Amino acid sequence: KRTFQQSIKYRLKVPFGTKSLDAALCVPASVTDVHTAVILTHGAGGDMNFKHLLSLAHSLASNGFICLRFTCKGLNLGYRVKAYCAVWDYLKSLQKFTIKHMFFGGRSMGCRAAVAVARQLSNESEDPVQGVICLSFPLHPPGQTSAHRQRSEDLRKLPEHMRVLFVSGTEDNMCDRVLFNKVVKEIKAQVEVFWLQGGNHGLTVKERAEDSVLDEVNSKVIAWISEQRA
Fold first, then answer.
1. Which of 2, 19, 122, 172 is 20 to 30 A distant from 85 in Cα terms?
2. Exposed, middle or buried, 26 (CB in 10 Å: 0-12/13-18/19+)?
3. Could you state, in order of their start, the residue ranges of all structural domains in the chain?
4. pTM of the full structure
5. Element spanning 40, H or E
6. Cα angle value 211/212/214 (rounded, 5°)
């Protein structure tokens, strides 16, 4: 049985140009020797307090990881990417932590931004981004499968050393499984896919308690991160 540490949450304002982004930092209560961090952001709707992100953030901190999640309401992907970079720069500036293992993540549009930033950084710097966590990757809008090539471009350009975890529902109307499996074959990065049986785009499952779904998804993400650091 896993032993959980306590977590502490801090509310933050991350500088972003002339504005600031609302953010929350969850850390283990004992912050000594914490070297792994995860950045998370939300999809096109909602904010950083979307229940799945909130649950995952606390679960990560309880298992000894730092989690910084943030809100960015802009629906333009390029704007989201800039916001993500600002949050990453902010996290690096925190003197309290020495981050050796870094993971970017998000839900839906948020994970598209995470992938784009990971790809950019892999081209231009030595930043220690080890992997990307994609919760409900939106391969295409509902019923518009032709968009899948454009939406998967950054995924296909990730380098071989990058690791990617996809968590998607089998009933997700924005991720056709046949198309998705074809895309995965074209990705050079090291990919693992976790299909949530009966899950929709919001990762909810009919006739299943939400907490049980959250626990299943969180456990998968934590186990995957732990494997990458080994």
1. 172
2. buried
3. 7-229
4. 0.95
5. strand 36-41
6. 60
